From TrEMBL, chain B:
Disulfide bonds: C27-C147, C58-C135, C71-C116
Compartments where located: Secreted
Protein family membership: Belongs to the IL-7/IL-9 family.
Gene3D superfamilies for this protein: 1.20.1250.50
Stated name of the protein: Interleukin-7
A Gene Ontology BP annotation from the UniProt entry: immune response
Keyword Transmembrane helix in annotation: no
SMART domains: IL7
One GO CC term, this protein: extracellular space
Disulfide bond keyword on record: yes
Keywords: Cytokine, Disulfide bond, Glycoprotein, Growth factor, Secreted, Signal
Single GO MF annotation: growth factor activity
Amino acid sequence: MDNILLLIKEGEFEDAELDDYSFSCYSQLEVDGTQHLLTCAFDDPDVNSTNLEFEICGALLNVKCLTFDKLQEMYFIKTKKFLLIGDSEIHVKLGGKNITSKKLNIVEIVKPEAPFDIRVIYRKGANDFLVTFNTSHSQKKYVKELMHEVAYRQEKNENDWMHVNLSSTKLTLLQRKLQPDAMYEIKVRSIPNANYFQGFWSEWSPTFHFRTPEITGRMDPVLLTISILSFFSVALMVILACALWKKRIKPIVWPSLPDHKKTLEQLCKKPKKNLNVSFNPESFLDCQIHKVDGIQARDEAESFLQDTSSQLDESEKQRLGGGMQGPTWPSEHAAITPKAFREDSPFGCLAGSISMCEALVQSSSRSPDCREGGKNGPHVYQGLLLGPGTTNSTVPTPSPFQSGILTLSPTAQGQPVLTSLGSSQEEAYVTMSSFYQNQ
Amino acid sequence: MFHVSFRYIFGIPPLILVLLPVTSSDCDIEGKDGREYQHVLMISINDLDTMIKNRTNCPNNEPKVFKKHACDDNKEGMFLYRAARKLKQFVKVNNSEDFNLHLSRVSQGTLQLLNCTPKEDNKSVKEQRKQKSLCSLGILLQKIKTCWNKILRGSKEH
């Protein structure tokens, strides 16, 4: 029994010894030119490393094994003779006797060098911070591709680090994601990108401190002025557009089709304000309308003129005289009597040319008010409305013409002209053809 | 009867051994994914190329190097095995340390990735000893590079 107990105790002691000599290693390739560095250390710092040696065998060039150098509690070897392909064995020896061994691959325990020269530049135009840093591995042949980790925090917030992973050496931090007018610190570290070389994080780079700018409450004064002016101008344009929409804007943008009757009314209204121009027969109810039965002699015309001469203006007389003397007077002054007439009157004053409007003006100028004219007796209607179907009307030849009043016999020779006219207001135009055909 | 049995015992087996064809088994290639070649071997081959070009002006006509061996289909492993062994012949004392190390890395690294068990060929060893010029080394390295590229292309297609 005692012997058995002793054996168990010995076994426990051996296990404890092995645990004590556990170690870990990391490699750094091309750390000094073309030389590589392999560093090992015991996991337990309390291990008595006196007389302990480290040795690496396998995956070496031209040699079988290499012995580590010792510096305090660290064991390292600096050499170019790593094959970088295949596994090696690390032996811990005490007095030449192998205590413990570990199989590892040099390319799988790579620890990159720490990045350096980290800088932060504020870009006002882009409202962001450009973070740049440098790494010595960009110049190396083997471990060229690394993954970097940037960590930043506000100085007052301890242990509140923000982390960003990137493969390049530039990073952009947006201003809106940082506190304004605050002090920040930033640092970076690297690790092999695990394509072929793998390993551990490097040490952190030296920390860089930067301050974020304040957010100014005032806008640029020029920008502010321009924005206010443009706002008010837009508001003014909207108000004017609403106010003038119906009267001014809509007729231009969406013009209504012109009505010839209204247009003519407006045109005729312009010269004389007191002119009673209308195509509405009801406005001329007060006027006495006499039928024109035929062409009367000059004497009768003159007698009528004498009666109404007192009511004429000088300018009107001249115009009338000039118009009457012209051989083409009937064509030019085929006046349009007002449309408004009594129902039995054959005459109608319908839309026509401006010349007809002028005659109308002349005729009505003699009698500016129908009511006044009515008091003076019968009127002289120099205007005569003839329709297209006036083939049978008796009209004077254009030359020579003796002034008078053209009258039409509404009953002579078939259909009276004006009745045909009265039947269709759109056809009440005087045409020269009507004069010639009746000769 | 006795002298007859002796003839069969001691005569025929050596005959059989002599008449048996020399079978050279091809090699198993471990680094077919190309990681070891691209990250380690190719770097050393390129460095050696640069060093050779800086030291010598090789003629345009290709010297007779490794003519008997080619990177034929299904024989790429054997070609690399032989070429890697030949590289050791170029390791010299008067070369720089880096030059020798790169040579050793290409040679040893290639052999590490191959699993070959060929027979020794005395004639080829003699032939290797003859051609040790740097220009020959440059051509050999290019052939090794070409053969590795062929292996990697073939593995990608599969």
